[in-house]
C-alpha cells in the first residue's frame, strides 16, 4: 500500500461517524447524498461493512415518496448554515419522521455506487446479498424522479435548486440569478469562518439560494408547486447523466439477482426515453458538448463546464460525438499548462480557477470523466486524467478542489476549500487500486 493510500484511509476513518461519513470536519458536518455514495466506493476497498452501513444510513432517510434528501442532519451543530431549522423538512407530509433533512436532493449516484461496490467486492455473493436488501429503495428513488420531476414527460428530470446540482455556484447559474431579485436576507454564514471567503460563493449568491428554499417551503416542498413556481428549474446534464448511469447499473444488478422483469423493463423504458431526449435536447452543436436547459425561462444555458462532458460517463453520446467532445475537452481544458479537468470553461470570462465550482478541478468529476473517457477507448486520455488527479493530491493533500493552472502548483498551495475531504480520499483510493 502506498503512503498516499494510507493517508486516504486515515482521512476516511477520521470522517467516519459511527454509521455515516461527513464530507469534511467543520465545513460540512452532516451526511450529504452524493458525497455519501462516492465515499462508499472508497470504503468498499478496505472496509466493506462500513461501505454498506454508509448506504444503509443514507437510504434510511428516504421519504415516503421515494425522495432522498441532499443533507441528513444527524447531529445538532451550528457550524453549518443553513441548518435543519431553516430547511424544515417536516413541512412535507411524507418527509422522514426519523431524520431531519433538507427538502432538496442531489445527483442520484446510489445505483452506480452499488454496482461499483459489487465490482470492488472480493466476496461477490455476500455483496450481492447486501445489494438485494437495498436495491428496491434505489429503484423507488428513480421512480420518484420520473414521476415527480419530469412535468413534460420528456425523460429528463429537473432540479429546482443549484444545491441539487452539486455544482453550487457554477457560472451558468449567473444567468438564472439575472432573472431573480431576492430580498437581502440577514443571516450568519458559517462556511466563510472555515474557509477563505474568496474561495466560496458571495453573500448575494446566498440570498438567491435561500430565496428559492423560502418559495419551496411556502408550498411545503410540494413537487408540482415547485415545478410551477420555482424561479430555478433546470435540466442539468450532470444530474441526468448520473441518473441514466444509475438506471443502467440497476438493470445490471437486477439481472444478476434474477427475476424483477417488471422493474427491468420499466428501467429500460425510462432509459430509452431519457437517452433520446438527452441527445436531442441537451447537445449543443455550436458549443460542441452538452449544456444545461433552463426550463423556467425556456432556453439553453450555452456554457461549457465539466458537467458538459459527464454524459461520457453514462455512455450517452455516440462514438463520433464522443470523439469530438473529447477533442474539445483537450483543446480548451487540457493544454500543457493545465490540469484536467477545470470545472468551467477556462477560456470564458466567468472562469475563476480558485473559486469553488467556477473553475477549479474536482476529484469527483475527474473520476467520472476518467471512467467515461476510458469506456470510449481513449486510454491515453483516461490515464492523463488519472495522473493529473493523483498529482494534484500528492502535491497539495486531500483538498476539496484544486487550481487547474500548473504554474500555481509550482509556486505553493493550490488546493482550496476544505482539507481532508472525504470524496477526494475515497476516489483516490479507487483510482490507484
Ligand atoms: C458543497 O455544497 C454545500 C451545499 O450542499 C455547501 O456549499 O454548503 C458542494 O460542493 C456539493 O456538491 C457537496 O455535496 C457539498 C458537501 O461536500 O458541498
Please, could you describe this protein's structure?
With 433 residues, this protein is mainly alpha-helical. It has one domain (3-432): Glycosyltransferase (Alpha/alpha barrel). It is 52% helix and 5% strand. The chain has 19 helices and 10 strands. The protein has helices at 3-14, 33-46, 48-60, 84-87, 110-120, 124-148, 162-165, 173-177, 191-194, 203-218, 223-229, 237-257, 261-282, 306-309, 319-333, 363-375, 379-396, 406-411, 422-432, and strands at 31-32, 71-73, 100-101, 234-235, 283-284, 289-290, 292-294, 299-301, 401-402, 415-416. A 3-stranded antiparallel β-sheet has the order 1-2-3. The chain is globular, with a radius of gyration of 20 Å. The mean pLDDT is 98. The site of (2R)-3-hydroxy-2-(alpha-D-mannopyranosyloxy)propanoic acid has 10 residues, from helix 2.
* Spatial strand arrangement across the major sheet: 1-2-3
Secondary-structure element order, as H and E?
HEHHEHEHHHHHHHEHHEEEEHHHHEHEH
Number of strands: 10
What shape does the CA trace take?
Answer: globular
Q: Which CATH top level class fits?
A: Mainly Alpha
Q: Count every helix, treating DSSP H or I runs of 4 or more residues as helices.
A: 19
Rounded radius of gyration (Å)? 20 Å
Mean pLDDT: 98
Q: Report the CATH architecture.
A: Alpha/alpha barrel
Low-confidence stretches: none
Count of discrete structural domains: 1
The biggest sheet amounts to: 3 strands, antiparallel
Per the CATH scheme, the topology name is: Glycosyltransferase
Q: Determine the N-to-C terminus distance.
A: 9 Å
Q: What are the distinct ligands in this entry?
A: (2R)-3-hydroxy-2-(alpha-D-mannopyranosyloxy)propanoic acid
Question: What structural class do helix, strand and pairing data support?
Answer: mainly alpha
List the quaternary state of the chains: single chain
Strand content: 5-15%
Keywords: Glycosidase, Hydrolase
GO molecular function: Glc3Man9GlcNAc2 oligosaccharide glucosidase activity
Organism: Aquimarina spongiae
InterPro entries: 6-hairpin_glycosidase_sf, 6hp_glycosidase-like_sf, Glycoside_hydrolase_63, MGH1-like_GH
